[in-house]
Amino acid sequence: MTVPKFDSPEEEIKKWLNYIALICLSEEFQSLKKELESIYLQSNMENVRLTAFEDALYAFLSQERDEQVYQSNAY
Description:
Elements: H1 10-25, H2 27-42, H3 48-73
Helix pairs in contact: 2-3
């Protein structure tokens, strides 16, 4: 799934948002977010919960993109 552009159709943006919601509700995402929160708390970072959420989401989206690139190069 490609990242929608600013002027993307509403339906494409809704698909993207649903995809992100599924990621955020997954056990794997929640586990990573909690692990990052713990690490960030020990590091005395500001906005621990928000930063952990952002970093976990970025990690999942990057992983998906890397898998798509790998699959497209495998053929």
